[in-house]
Design goal:
The protein is an alpha/beta fold and about 350 residues long. About 50% of the residues lie in helices and about 10% in strands. The chain has a 5-stranded parallel beta sheet with strand order 4-7-8-9-10. A 3-stranded parallel beta sheet has the order 1-2-3, sandwiched between helices. Strand 5 and strand 6 form a beta hairpin.
Length: about 350
């Protein structure tokens, strides 16, 4: 029997299969893109809630969720493949139009995030404008690297995101050059450990490269509780200060302070595999005002059903106050996405 919770719950980080976009990618001449799309299609055929809006809504109702923030699956995000700038632009346009339609079909219970061609400033900014002002999408999902280029390379994107008051979700993807790291490719190690590490590198670079300092009003959400950041926050603070290291004082030289100051201003989601010690670490590091509840649905056991049915209960077992639970379950993400 499903457990229905007695508070409002917004799942702040989920994925969905835009069928037409995925079919288009599945016939691409680009083999990695084609293979990834076909994997997603097979999963969507097995679990209908991957793509079918009515099935998604039924799952939400069954387990007591009022709405979801959703985005394309990271393994078929346009920026991670070797396409031309025009091809990426065309793919993003089709993808975002389809995401907008899915949101409308859901009765606005699915709030979708756009993808934009990050490497092409003019195309990127034009699609950012269209996505938010014409399509009604609620922000952007960006991968942790674009064919090996770090996210702090794209100043035009961060400047435009701030001016649009957009929320930006940073989602991990495989590191560039992983084909040479066989010890990481085997056993799904890149996904289990490499992705949280990618997130850690990317967020810390955003701080050290000055993106977060130059754009203080950015609203950034980190997946998987920020990877290694909460566990190693003391090490970050210590290593990047003059007092802590005579060699590695990049934080104070570049920022005037430790990157910790900027990392504390981001938002972090609870998709950590249901680990209560991990949740506690994140909460003790960032506080409930910076945490948003998320399941990463429909990924996970049984097409994500194990996650949406059990993840809220882990939050209840943390002995949080009603105010803290409400912040995590819906208040924080409402401020970021729905207002």
């Amino acid at each position: 029997m499903p457990f229905l919770y007695d508070v409002r719950i917004i799942d702040a980080s989920t994925h969905i299969t835009p069928i037409e976009y995925t079919r288009r990618l599945s016939t691409s001449k680009n083999k990695p893109a084609r293979d990834a799309a076909r994997t997603v299609i097979r999963l969507s055929e097995r679990y209908r809630h991957f793509s079918d809006v009515n099935e998604r809504l039924a799952a939400m109702d069954r387990y007591g969720y009022s709405s979801e923030v959703t985005m394309v699956h990271s393994i078929i995000e346009p920026n991670i493949f070797d396409f031309t700038s025009q091809e990426k632009f065309d793919l993003c346009q089709g993808l975002n139009s389809e995401l907008s339609s899915l949101s409308r079909d859901s009765g606005r219970r699915l709030f979708a995030l756009a993808s934009v061609p990050l490497e092409s400033p003019e195309m990127c900014e034009n699609e950012m404008e269209r996505s938010m002002k014409k399509l009604g999408l609620k922000g952007f999902m960006v991968p942790t690297n674009v064919m090996g280029k770090p996210l702090d390379s794209f100043e035009h994107f961060w400047s435009k995101a701030e001016s649009l008051d957009a929320t930006v979700y940073v989602h991990p993807v495989d590191p560039s050059g992983m084909e040479h790291r066989t010890y990481e490719r085997e056993y799904d190690l890149a996904h289990v450990f490499g992705w949280p590490y990618e997130t850690t590198l990317t967020l810390t670079r955003l701080a050290l490269a000055g993106i977060l300092k130059r754009h203080p009003n950015l609203k950034v959400v980190a997946h998987h509780m920020g990877g290694m950041i909460p566990f190693f926050m003391g090490r970050i603070k210590e290593s990047y200060s003059k007092a802590g290291s005579a060699v590695n004082d990049a934080g104070e030289r570049l920022l005037g302070s430790s990157p910790q100051e900027y990392l504390m201003k981001l938002y972090y989601d609870t998709a950590v595999g249901g680990s209560e010690p991990s949740l506690k670490c994140g909460l003790q590091t960032f506080g409930a005002e910076r945490i948003i509840f998320a399941t990463d649905f429909p990924w996970g056991p049984k097409g994500g059903i194990d996650r949406i049915s059990s993840y809220p209960e882990h939050m209840y077992r943390l002995d949080l106050s009603a105010e803290e639970l409400n912040r995590i379950f819906y208040v924080n993400v409402e401020k970021l996405i729905l207002t």
